[in-house]
Design a protein that fits this description.
Layout lengths: L1 H15 L3 H14 L8 E5 L4 H16 L5 E8 L4 H13 L4 E5 L2 H5 L6 H19 L4 E3 L4 H15 L8 E3 L7 E3 L7 H10 L13 H6 L6 H15 L3 H8 L10 E4 L2 E4 L5
Parallel strand pairs: 1-2, 1-4, 2-3, 4-6
Antiparallel strand pairs: 5-6, 7-8
Helix pairs in contact: 7-10, 7-11
Length: 277
Amino acid sequence: MDKICDKAKEVERSINKKFHKSIWSRFTAAINDYDLIQEGDKIAVCISGGKDSMLMAKLFQELKRHNKFPFEVEYIVMDPGYSAPNRKQIEDNARLLNVPITIFESNIFESVLHIEKSPCYLCARMRRGYLYNQAKSMGCNKIALGHHYDDVIETILMGMLYGGQVQTMMPKLHSTNFEGMELIRPMYLIRERDIIRWRDYNELTFLQCACKFTEECAINEKETTSKRLEIKNMIKELSKTNPQVESNIFKSVENVNLDTVIGYKQNSVKHSFLEDY
């Protein structure tokens, strides 16, 4: 127990010292810039077992120690059908990092196992629904997900190149199916490379992925070939000749010039530039 406490304190110290600027400051900046947390909130911090959500849990613990106004936090883990080794790894990491998790079960993996068209999309939608439902049953009004800066810029390019639309991953949004519930992304401004540095500096091992379709990569730390990985590699190549390309992609959805947009959607209604021409 002493060894576990020492490790948790060591990890917390690294957030406050070595990664204060690259991780902690960006975490608090997102909370302030996008007004993610208000007094009286009860937030369900959703932990998948990967590096991003585990770091988010530690950041919330740190925030609670310095909170300027009262709010509550619950740390929840949904088991959608993990293998026994994957489930154990999540539990061991939570114990090692002193994160008091609540685990609940679902059968999502079995439900989408034989779906041929867009199983990942369906799985993600079902996961979100289960998380909202569990959070609401615990008296929470918000769920926090561990998406980071790189997820945001990759989503922008994926929408353009594979979806034929300009969209982004929002820092917060209201649930359409669970009244009074909201989703927040407090790691919105944190770079993935800094999360990896934090993980490796503290010699931690997390699930890479735990999907039934790609379970091997959860054990062997291999990445599967996907559209998102294609986009990730594309951005990496572009950054070699233009170091500003990542920040430019991010800023592009903050600086939309409607005077030069042919059409856009608002509240599911399509509009054309001809309306005001």
